[in-house]
Each structure stands twice: as C-alpha cells, then as structure tokens.
Amino acid sequence: MKTFLVISGDSITDFDLTAAIAFHKQNKSKATLILTRVPNPIEFGVVITDQEGRISRFLEKPSSSEIFSDTVNTGTYILEPEVLEYLPANIECDFSKDLFPLLLAKDEPMYGYIAQGYWCDVGHLDAYRQAQYDALDGKVQLDYAYKQVSHELWVGQNTYIDQTAVIETPVVIGDNCRIGARVQIEAGTVIGDNVTIGADANLKRPIVWNGAFIGEEVALSACVISRGTRVDRRAQVLEAAVVGSLSTVGEEAQISPGVRVWPSKKIESGAVLNINLIWGNTAQRNLFGQRGVQGLANIDITPEFAVKLGSAYGSTLKPGSKVTVSRDQRNVSRMVTRSLIAGLMSVGIDIQNLDATAIPIARTVIPTMSVAGGIHVRVHPDRPDYILVEFMDAKGINITKALEKKIEGAYFKEDMRRALIHEIGDVSYPSQVMDRYCTAFEKLLHVHTLRNSRAKVVIDYVYAVSGAVLPQMLDKFGADAVVLNASVNKSAMSITDREGLLTQLGHVVEALKANFGVQVSANGEQLILVDESGYPIRGETLTALMVDMILTANPRGTVVVPVHASSAIEQVARRHDGRVIRTKANPTALMEACQKNSNVVLGGSGETGFIFPQLHPGFDAMFCIAKIIEMLTIQERSLAAGAIGIAPCNSQNLYNTLPVDCQRCFDALPWWKLTHAQNLELIDGVKICQPYDDSWLLVLPDASEPLVHLYANSNDREWVDETVRNYRTRVQTFVERQQEYQPAEV
C-alpha cells in the first residue's frame, strides 16, 4: 500500500497538494497535516509546530485563552499506510481525536504543512454562501461548467435572458434558464440549471438551485432556494433564509431573515414565517381558525410555538394583567399550557392556574376573578391528533376577530415586550373553583324536582375531566345516575372509539331500563343523547328537541342558532310563540348573540353543544344533563316521544363540501354573484331562500380550509338533491372563472 491522501468532503480549496506531498516525503513524515492560517481559529482545531514544521501539540476548538497559533487543521492529510496499524479493527475512530494524538504520544514523526491559497470549511450555511461569493469574486481557482459570455458573466446553453433584464456581474446562470422582462440581478447571484425567473423579479445575491421557479415581482435577498422549489408572485425570501427542496412559497408570503424551511413544505399565500418550519407541513398566514388556534399536537403546536403565542397574547394586555389558564387532562395539553404560561410570564402577566378543569367551569369563574381573559387548552373535539387553544375575554366569551388579529400581528411581527426581572409574572392556584361553579349551577335548577324525579340516567364521560365534576353534582341532587368511563385517561380517544362507547351506552340504557343515556365529550361541552330504547339523538334532531323542551318551559322565549341549522327550529319555535335568532357559523358569534339579546333561553348547535346564558356564556353539557332531567320530569315526557314529535323527522338537511385549489382567489370571492335571487340572507355566506316555505340553500365558504360547504334544507327530498347538484356545478364554474381573472404567472 502506498502513501495516500485523506481530504475532507466539506471544504473548498485550491491548495497545491503536489508541494505538500513533496514536503511530506522530504521530512520522512508518517502523517502530514495540511494547515492554513485563519484570522479566528476558535472554530477549528489549532495545530502547533516547531520551526521545522514538526507537530508538537493539538488544540481541538480552543477557547480564546488557549490560542497560541493561527494555523488550523484543514481536514486534508497525507498518510503512510503503517499509521493504520494504530487503529483498532471494527471500531469507529476519528483522525483528529484518536489517531493523531496517539501518534504524537508514540513520538512518530508528524508534520504540518502550511499551505498557501484559498480554503473554506463549509460547515454551516453562512460559510456555504460565502464560498459561492468568494468563487464569483475570483478568490478561489475553480473551473466553471458554463461559458463566459462577457466579463464575469457565465451563462449555460439554451438559456434565454430578456433584453430588458439588468444583470450586474459577477453572476452565474445555468443551462435552460428563462429570465423574464425587467428582472434585476445583482452581483453575487448564482442560478442553477432549468430555473425560471418571472418578470420584475429582484434578485440580490441569492443562490438558486436547479429546477426552481421564481414568480413575478419576487424579491430574493442573499438566501438559498433549493432544488425544485416554487416561489410565487410577490413573495419575499430575506437574508440568510434557506428554503428546502420541493417546497412552495405562496403569493405575497415572506420568509424572514435566517429562517430555515425543511424540504417539501408549503408556505401559504400571505404568510409571514418568522420561525423555522421543520416538522409541520404548512406555514399558515393566520393563527386563528374557526375557533381558536389549532394544529397537530407537538408538530404544529410545539412548546416553542406556545411560548411565543403566550408572549404575543400577553403583549396585547397591560403589564400586570391577570389571565386564567386551564386545560383538559391530557399530557400534551399540560405541556402546551406550561409553555403558554412561560410566554405570558415573560411579558409581565400574572397567571391564575385552574389546572385540569372542564371548560364550562373555566367560563363560569372567569367573570368572578377580575381577570383580563382566559386560555383553555385541550385535545380537539373532532381530531384526537390536534390541539385546540381557545382564548376568552373577561366575560368568558371567545375573543373577537379584532383581538385575534391583534394577537396575530404581535406574533408575526414579533412585537412582544420583555418584562424586567422584577416585572416577571407570577402564578397562583385559586381555590374553591368547583364550588363557585356548583353554586351557580344549583341556582338555575328546580332542585326539589330533581330530587323527586326518580329518573335513572346512564352517563358516559369518555374518560374525560368532566367525569370528576358531574357525578358529585347529580349525587347532591339525588339523581340515580349510572356512571360509565368516569376515570381520567391521559390519552385522547379517536372518533371510532367514541362511537364504540356510544353503542355500548345504548345497550346499557336499554338493559337498565333507564330514562335516557348521555355521552359527554369535548371537555364538558358536547353531548349525544340516547333515548330509552338505546337510539342516539344528535345533530339537528338534538337541537330541535332541546329547543322544544326549553320553549315548552319558557314560552315566548328566544333561541339562538347558527345560520346553517335546520328550519325545524323555526317550526318548533312557532308552536311556542318563540323567536329564533340566526348567527354566523362560529361559536364566538353564537356566544355573543346569547349575551347581547334579551330573553335568550338557549343557544344551540348540534355539532357544538348548548348554551344556557344565565349560567355562563359557553357550551355546557353538564348543566344540560341536569336540565333535561328537570324538564322531562316537569313535562312528563320521554326522549323518544319528544323526538318523534319534532319537525326534523319531516325535514332534510344535506351537507356537501366542494374543494377549491386557489386559496388566494378563494378568500375574496364575491359569492353573492352566484345568484340573482331576491330572497337572500347574508348573515354568513349566501343563503338563498324560497319565497313561500322554509326551503333554502346555503353557500358557506369554510373559515379555515379552501372548501365551500353547501347546506340544503327542505321537506322535499328531490328539491334538496337537485338544488345541491345544481349549485355544486355553479360554484365550481364560478371559482374557475374567478381564477381566470387572476394575473398569470410566468
């Protein structure tokens, strides 16, 4: 075996290795290290030699007090084969840490050759960019793969550059590229093969890899755009940012300086990305969706994200303000809650920690605690892999869109204050929280009726925290309650598992001849009833049934439902001279309407739950159970009989979704232009009403996703089917036409 070379793969150099080999042979060295002089050796391994060049000492990445030389190890070695005998077989070893110190201890001849020329250790992204700029400036001798067409301008084959483009040299442009009209390319820019640059783009020293697409009016500044990445119209990627391969940066999005985007990620149109996008799939331009902030647990909603979110929310409040923080019993919710608390404390906010608490309890006590608002963290009711973070105001109502935008502004602009050390927030744990809820709960019930009802109820708590509250209440009122799955489980249940428990609940109700059963979910907010025959009652039927029972007890009362609820609600209300108020299809709108309007006795949505505004402004399945026992007793009725007598039996409510691909077009579409009908309601989306009956169709764009929901309501099933088919086609055609009007991309 002959003398051999070892060369580090992450270095760029033009050293004369022939001279180094001659030095090695002349000194009969066993190992010669190629060295170079650098201004700041702290990041490298320092090598100290004597006057003849023989190595006397190694310092691996020394501190400033240990630096006695500016010659560093470049990772290039000339070795004699016998040095390998010092390395043990089948054991991983390092030249610098293991072999060379051993040779030094054995007094084997080792020399350092100080080479002249360029050397760069591309160990981090700043060094990678600097090496590109150094090559263009001629600081290192490199061979270019492209023809030099003018002074310091290299252009590949079959590349088209519009005559109006302005290029400052030095610049490299690869093969098969297309440079659009009025493109500005500054000196230091590197463009790979098969790259398209749209008109009016501004490139200030970016490094663009093969196959990238850069849209019109895009601004790139000293960043790295990796292979196959798409950067859409008017997007900005700023200094030192890196966008991984096959990613997409949406229109008018901005990637802030130094941010790193891992491969195959999507940045939504208009988003401002201030943190690295590593695990999630998408960076959104909005934090808040239909209700609160939601995302994949420990992927989108991480501890780092939660700390920043807490800081952003706290920065919208006055220093020294107090907020409550509560959660469900899941471990991931505890993790997110603690991170939120850290962020809130860092901006000088005091915490009233309610710990693991059902959300109806949190909403009840917030108005009594002199706090500015509250946060509740839980596993999403419909997605066991998602976390939902809800923000409440001082009344316990979900915060307004205006405050959501204020929090988003602080988050994306990183406009968070920092409290001085003596201003850091405090954490306290208030007592008697459950007692306050129980007191308010009891005041709104006919307790004597409950104690004499002799009702038997089977309640499935689905292993949630509400199971620690309601059994005490029902026992206090003397109700005969059979409890299922009341222990607290720290793992979230899937929808399939919950449906299995619902079937089990029906069997238990039927076997015990109970008056009814109920499954409580969503941390005490939602419920599904099971009648005495074991049949589940949910959705529109449950909403209409609750409205019927409440208005029977409170004639001429007002009920609040979302715009998409069945017209059966109006039919039931007419029987009792009641009034129906329709709201936008989001929980906050429902809560606000229940508080603002007079004589409201119930707010209801089959998907979300029921609001009893006299108790607190949110949804409460626990109070609803007690109220149902009371009303069934007073009204001497059963659930099965009540369900048969309500209008949803004769009403159809059909739900469809239509996917839309263009998010930017989707957000601002003039949906009212879909129809020339006179009877329109524009509460939320576009509701097209028939003039002489309760039939209607609702076109409702989704608040979070690029979807259009179609709801149709009528006693005539054929009308429902035909109308939905008709409007599905009309909506699709309408969206496609709107997209045609968007400016075309190069």
UniProtKB/TrEMBL annotation:
Entry keywords, A to Z: Cytoplasm, Initiation factor, Nucleotidyltransferase, Phosphoprotein, Protein biosynthesis, Transferase
A GO term for molecular function: nucleotidyltransferase activity
Coiled-coil spans in chain: none
Domain Alpha-D-phosphohexomutase alpha/beta/alpha, residue spans: 286-416, 436-534, 539-640
Pfam families in the cross-refs: LbH_EIF2B (PF25084), NTP_transferase (PF00483), PGM_PMM_I (PF02878), PGM_PMM_II (PF02879), PGM_PMM_III (PF02880)
Family: Belongs to the phosphohexose mutase family.
Record's protein name: Mannose-1-phosphate guanylyltransferase
